[in-house]
């Protein structure tokens, strides 16, 4: 499969390609171009040409086209979901669900576009008016990760298009196929050429996109080190940045909590997508009176989750590659060496259907201590560290003792205590007594080293707009 730019398929100028593999077996399923700086320049030039027309398109027409693209995603969810299943390894139902959910976000962005207004000060003198309006920032570079490649792309693409901005996207090397298919689908649906360009490649390509002088914004989801490098490079041309840099999210379970509900929510959320997402429960602080009772409930639920072998079905797929898998192995080994208990999982799954992929069963690490890696560093795998605490206040202190601040979770029947803990969390989103999917209508993003800016809802759209103040004067005829 080639890159998609200016409404068509394009090979890399160098002719080089890189493989895309099936994480369940390691087999090569396709190749994509190994794009470099010249390819970045071609895609950006295409977007810049498209911008001149798109920024003048009336909002109602932008909304119509974006909503048509959303419906096309729903119609083609099985096809694009199947491609995502092959390149990511997540069970097929979850991949199809990601496409449908992403289409819903497109619709929400479209609706937010209809609610954008300019403002006019009422105190102007006769023959004078001051109008505050907003212009699209310009060409946007979106760099997206492997774990939810379509959802995290829509965070950026949907908002940018409604705001009037074209996008050049670089998907993860692990999961480029679904993004390429989506670009083709949007173009076939009627999105003008050059508004959604997809270039594929590795670090050199990403650096060229960020350093190029034409784009005015970089939207990135990924690791903290990569985000810091992007922010530093973007400063050279004063580009805007939106950075969602992952998390090491903590949950606090108080002694009065509904333990069955807490265990169900934590297991469902902590191990979804084999732990490969940013705001999952990574570490858990539990009041001592209910510590062992909660451990039992968590272990029972974790052991019931099944792994889907190559060609088979199950609850969880493999980790996407050996590099991601290594973090889980390292954290488990570190915890064992420091005396932790492994309540479930802990060892790589092997045997027929598993040997070709990086499979780790859901793993619970009990009696974790603050110096253990699992309690200090993001795992991005199906591993949860659990520690006892003597009070909710101690739990909150340990939860906040982190350079990350993406999400937090609290379980207690005491509403006043729950609200105090939620308000005390240093995190961009906090859940109380359950863990629902993050809403598309409200801002999503993190504090501290978990990133800069917010995505989704109207908050996402306005981050692709620049304020402009117009001072108007005329001679009053009356």
From TrEMBL:
Protein's UniProt keywords contain NAD: no
GO process terms (BP): gamma-aminobutyric acid catabolic process
Oxidoreductase as UniProt keyword: yes
A Pfam family reported for this protein in Swiss-Prot or TrEMBL: Aldedh
Keyword line: Oxidoreductase
GO terms of molecular function: succinate-semialdehyde dehydrogenase (NAD+) activity
Annotated InterPro entries: Ald_DH/histidinol_DH, Ald_DH_C, Ald_DH_N, Aldehyde_DH_dom, Aldehyde_DH_Superfamily
Location of the Aldehyde dehydrogenase domain: 9-469
PANTHER family (alphabetical): SUCCINATE-SEMIALDEHYDE DEHYDROGENASE, MITOCHONDRIAL (PTHR43353:SF5)
Family designation: Belongs to the aldehyde dehydrogenase family.
Protein's name in the database: NAD-dependent succinate-semialdehyde dehydrogenase
């Amino acid at each position: 499969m080639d890159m998609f730019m200016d409404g068509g398929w394009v090979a890399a100028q160098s002719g080089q390609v890189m493989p895309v593999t099936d994480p369940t077996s390691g087999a090569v399923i396709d190749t994509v171009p190994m794009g470099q700086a010249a390819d970045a320049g071609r895609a950006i030039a295409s977007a810049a040409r498209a911008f001149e027309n798109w920024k003048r398109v009336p909002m109602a027409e932008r909304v119509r086209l974006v909503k048509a693209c959303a419906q096309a995603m729903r119609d083609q969810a099985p096809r694009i979901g199947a491609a995502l299943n092959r390149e990511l390894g997540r069970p097929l139902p979850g991949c199809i669900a990601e496409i449908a959910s992403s289409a819903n976000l497109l619709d929400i962005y479209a609706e937010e576009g209809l609610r954008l207004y300019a403002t006019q000060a009422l105190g102007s003198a006769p023959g004078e008016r001051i109008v505050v309006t907003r212009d699209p920032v310009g060409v946007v570079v979106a760099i997206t990760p492997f774990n939810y490649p379509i959802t995290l792309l829509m965070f950026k693409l949907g908002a940018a298009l409604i705001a009037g901005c074209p996008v050049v996207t670089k998907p993860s090397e692990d999961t480029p196929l679904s993004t390429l298919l989506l670009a083709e689908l949007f173009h076939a649906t009627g999105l003008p050429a050059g508004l959604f360009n997809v270039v594929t490649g590795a670090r050199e390509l990403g650096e060229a996109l960020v350093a190029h002088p034409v784009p005015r914004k970089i939207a990135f989801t990924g690791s903290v080190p990569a985000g810091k490098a992007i922010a530093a490079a973007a400063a050279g041309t004063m580009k805007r940045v939106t950075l969602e840099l992952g998390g090491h999210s903590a949950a606090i379970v108080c002694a009065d909590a509904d333990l069955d509900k807490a265990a169900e929510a934590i297991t469902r959320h902590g191990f979804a997508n084999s732990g490969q997402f940013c705001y999952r429960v990574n570490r858990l602080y539990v009041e001592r009176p209910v510590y062992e009772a909660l451990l039992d409930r968590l272990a029972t639920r974790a052991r019931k989750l099944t792994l889907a072998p190559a060609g088979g079905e199950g609850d969880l797929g493999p980790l996407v590659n050996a590099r991601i898998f290594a973090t889980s192995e390292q954290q488990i080994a570190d915890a064992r060496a420091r005396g932790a208990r492994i309540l479930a999982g802990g060892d790589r799954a092997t045997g027929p259907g598993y040997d070709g992929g990086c499979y780790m069963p859901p793993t619970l690490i009990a009696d974790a201590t603050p110096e253990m890696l699992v309690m200090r560093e993001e795992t991005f795998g199906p591993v949860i560290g659990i520690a006892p605490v003597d009070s909710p206040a101690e739990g909150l202190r340990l939860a906040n003792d982190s350079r990350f601040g993406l999400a937090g979770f609290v379980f207690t029947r005491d509403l006043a205590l729950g609200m105090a803990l939620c308000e005390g969390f240093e995190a961009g989103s906090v859940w109380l007594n359950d863990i629902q999917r993050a809403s598309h209508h409200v801002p999503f993003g993190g504090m501290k080293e978990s990133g800069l800016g917010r995505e989704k809802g109207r908050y996402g759209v306005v981050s692709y707009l620049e304020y402009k103040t117009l001072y108007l004067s005329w001679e009053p005829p009356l």
